[in-house]
Design brief:
A 4-stranded mixed beta sheet has the order 1-2-4-3, sandwiched between helices. Strand 3 and strand 4 form a beta hairpin. It is α+β, with helices and mostly antiparallel strands. Helix 3 crosses helix 5, helix 5 crosses helix 7 and helix 7 packs antiparallel against helix 8. The two termini are 13 Å apart.
């Protein structure tokens, strides 16, 4: 477990470097097409570094805002708050901020940059569907993400995925409506490069996002089961999440990997870049290893 936590911290650095390479490549393409020299490339890297630093501190709050989550105190929802409080005491962790998302789709997520600055959120649909044992299993899974520093990796991936999407979008718009210093018209080469950048960069970002998320879901399942010593409850909760899954009202692909269950309505492309392993496989692993927790 400690090796996994250390690996998560190392992977955060590797992921940031991978995104910097991707963002730098987009800057080089823009330089080649529009400027000459390395002005746009250097400016893109400086901007990406500043944006990454900003996201490190702000992406958690941004994710909560995008999900429409509202913070609660114990009096607002004693059941959910006490479950999270008991799990935090069991793990010897600081009490995270607790949020509720008004949405009938059963789901939950954790965010923040470390256990001292963590938040967990659950939908109203999740609380209506789950028994106390199952809800405890789900929130133990989310606290597992906090304990394993998955939230730091996921938060940075979330912020950098947004950045790649924005840069690719700007580049594509320049391709359609802009021109270089030598040609103010719609150069077909500019258009082709812009389209390629627009299509490839977000796909690469989605692949990194998916690769980061899948293994962490298995690890958080194991951590949650170890915390509660009740893997059957988490397995039952996951089975319900699979049976009663529905798209969330506020969908955003950039934060899909944060949720315990995929919040998107899966299409063909979504299935190619799914951020979550199959529910059946997660349940199978929990049941097969139940004697080890």
């Amino acid at each position: 477990m400690y090796r996994a936590i250390a690996a998560n911290k190392r992977n955060t650095i590797f992921i940031m470097l991978a995104f910097f390479v991707l963002i730098g490549a987009l800057g080089l393409v823009a330089d080649y097409l529009y400027g000459g020299g390395f002005g746009i490339f250097i400016g893109t890297l400086i901007g990406a570094a500043a944006y990454t630093l900003f996201q490190y501190f702000a992406a958690g709050r941004q994710a909560l805002s995008m999900a429409g989550a509202r913070q609660i105190q114990k009096a607002d929802n004693p059941r959910l708050y006490r479950i999270v409080e008991n799990l935090a005491i069991t793990e010897g962790m600081p009490m995270p901020a607790v949020y509720v998302v008004d949405d009938p789709a059963p789901n939950a997520f954790a965010t923040g940059r470390d256990p001292q600055h963590a938040s967990v959120a659950a939908t109203t649909g999740l609380m209506e569907l789950m028994t106390d044992r199952e809800l405890t299993g789900v929130m133990a899974h989310e606290l597992g993400h906090v304990k394993n520093y998955d939230i730091r990796v996921s938060t940075i991936v979330f912020g950098l995925t947004v950045a790649v999407g924005l840069i690719a979008d700007v580049l594509a718009r320049m391709a359609f409506f802009g021109g270089n210093r030598n040609n103010n018209g719609g150069n077909p080469i500019v258009l082709v490069f812009g389209l390629v950048a627009m299509l490839v960069a977000p796909l690469v970002a989605a692949l990194i996002q998916a690769a980061v998320s899948r293994q962490r879901e298995y690890l958080a399942d194991a951590t949650g089961a170890l915390t509660t010593r009740d893997p059957e409850a988490l397995a039952s909760a996951l089975q319900k999440l699979g049976d009663y899954a529905r798209p969330m009202r506020k969908q955003n692909s950039t934060m899909a990997h944060l949720w315990i269950s995929d919040p998107m309505k899966p299409g063909v492309m979504d299935r190619m870049f799914q951020t979550h392993p199959p529910i059946a496989e997660r349940v199978k692993r929990l049941i097969q290893n139940s004697n080890r927790f």
